Amino acid sequence: MTKSSNSTFLESVNRNFDKAAGYTEISKGILEQIKVCNAVYEIKFPVRIDDNIHVIQAFRAQHSHHRLPTKGGIRYNENVDKEEVEALAALMTYKCAIVDVPFGGAKGGVKINPKDYTEDQLERITRRYTTELIRKNFIGPGIDVPAPDYGTGPREMAWIYDTYLTFKGGDIDAAGCVTGKPVNQNGIRGRNEATGRGVFYGLRELCDTKEAMKKLGLSKGLSGKKVIIQGLGNVGSFTGTIMQEEGDIKVIAVSEYEGSIYSEKGIRVEDLLKYRKEKGSILGMPGTKTLKSKEAALEMECDILIPAALENQITIENAKNIKAKIIGEAANGPVSADAEAVLIKNGIIIVPDMYLNAGGVTVSYFEWLKNLSHMRFGRMEKRFDSNTYSNFVGLIEKLTSKKIGVKEREFLTKGADEIDLVRSGLEETMVTAFQQIWETAVSNPKIDGLRSAAFVCALNKISNDYLSLGIFP
Ligand code: GLU
User: Fold this and answer.
1) Is 107 in the active site?
2) Residue 411 Cα to ligand 1 middle (Å)
3) Which pLDDT score is estimated for 4?
4) CA max distance for the chain
5) Per-residue pLDDT for 416 more than 70?
6) Sequence spans of domains, the chain
7) CA distances from 19 to 22, 84, 377, 454 (A)
8) Domain 37-185 class?
9) Does the pLDDT value for residue 473 go beyond 90?
10) Average pLDDT over every residue of 236-256
């Protein structure tokens, strides 16, 4: 249980829920049904490690069945416990509702430190965990669909898929039993970068909102903003590289396990990732200074602070020291409920996890759809579109008697590939959801921040589902 000084992660999620519920007209009974975790499967299973038997503890929580399948990642971390998995599963329910991904929320956790095991041992643990889920009907393309989370990635998803296939080979939709798979194993292009890219789109939308920037005393637009990133895992590293490529931001500090570094001139995340791969640490990166602790980076002055690691990083202890103007929650639950009250009082805008990191599950949804349709996006229309655009360009050239340059022609006549469609679908999703959240916040001045506004959007959608489904029997 990750505990900040006053509340656990689950308590924080539920306190935020209760606060936002007060801004809705939803009845008490429906609110209670939305809030509770519907089912948790807790397992202990043996795995042979060298000459010993290790008993591994694991979980899968299905928070809400108002839409099926349920969906959410699997986390490998030594601090995993039932409450944490329940909190994360609840966030998945709200997250899916906010971005209109038609799933209920779920989350899995295996209580191990992946660094303590070899690749072969991790494969055995993953396959055994999957087998347990199959036995209890806790996995399947129409039941519950896992994905990567902290400590897991495409490699683990491929093992899960293969284990599922071993038991359910006759299921024509078996590939839809898990998302985040490698592209050559029925995965989708753009899933790996999806959460980070979604964070970029979400923060870009906020920075393009005039009223928000006016309130913070910042100029409009993402370009030139000073950014600090905590955590260079999948989410933090893609967030940094994509924001620098597309948004022209300046990363002034980065924090990791081993410590934190700072550079007034800015750090190129791509170079830092290369450096870390080579040296095993971010410390000593040329042109940077090492800060006194890994926590120190969080408390520095900047425009946008992006916690992209684990929950409860900003708590009542350090909230008063946070000098960022915007906090972009790329991780799940990095700000505790107690800390949030302090941050809001200090005028900081928090872009909440349940919206900002929803890019991962959004592209997981695209992958699931691809798996059920058994076809790559763009395969049918790419060439047809390209030929049509080419004919248009030819006609314009004929009518104007002017030639279009080779580069322009290439750009204008391109049919969309899978990656283009995935990115465009993700951008559309993040932009639309931001507008819904922002309008909800603006339309009710009592709502105290974007997290409450996001909750209100989610709760109204989920409650409508429950009301139109009816209660059985
Ligand atoms: N683990 C990710 C999250 O917390 C992705 C979940 C998914 O793709 O199902 O949102």
Assistant:
1) yes
2) 33
3) 46
4) 79
5) yes
6) 37-185, 382-414
7) 6, 20, 41, 12
8) alpha beta
9) no
10) 97
